[in-house]
Amino acid sequence: MIETSVWRDEVIGMIPALRAFAWSLSHNGSDADDLVQDTLVKAWTNREKFEPGTNLRAWLFTILRNTYYTHVLRRRREVRDEAGEYAASLKSAPTQDWRVAMRSLQAALQKLPAEHREALILVGAAGLSYDEAAEICGCALGTIKSRVNRARARLRKIMDAGDGADVMVVETMAVAGRA
User: Fold this and answer.
1) CB of 152 within 8 A of CB of 120?
2) What CA–CA distance (Å, rounded) separates 64 from 74?
3) Which of 31, 132, 160, 170 has the fewest Cβ atoms within 10 Å of its own Cβ atom?
4) 53 vs 12, 17, 142, CA distance in Å?
5) What is the pLDDT of residues 65-94, one digit of tens each?
6) Does the pTM exceed 0.85?
7) 159 with 104: CB under 8 angstroms?
8) CB atoms within 10 A of CB 148
9) Average pLDDT, stretch 2-24?
10) For residues 39 and 18, is the Cβ–Cβ distance under 8 A?
């Protein structure tokens, strides 16, 4: 290995040529200076890998060129957004609202009588026709239509009331003629 001070002096002598080469690649003065600085840091860090007697200029230019291409590849994946406008446009709707609504729907469905819940799920969620749902449940077509209609109405009331017990009492009283 060449003595460190001699090697350092030779590298320092190459800085103007490195700057010129970096500028020819980047066409920007500050980017070229950054590129030269990165090159010098890499060269100093790996100085033990340099073989004395070989071309130091070629070794440094190779480091600079490889560093440049690494930066180019990295920049392709990055978005320049100094003002933060692009980042501000990257908003997504909150997902927890859907989770809360889904839990409310599941809780409301559990408050329905089993035959109404089954009919509503077969027709509403599974997308079966009334005929298919009637066949699966083993009842008449009119019965399925009635169950789905009652389930929808009761579900709507449960979801609006927030407490299914209140709806059941009101409906029971309405059926009995007390409401």
Assistant:
1) yes
2) 15
3) 160
4) 18, 20, 97
5) 999 999 888 888 877 788 888 888 888 777
6) no
7) yes
8) 20
9) 90
10) yes
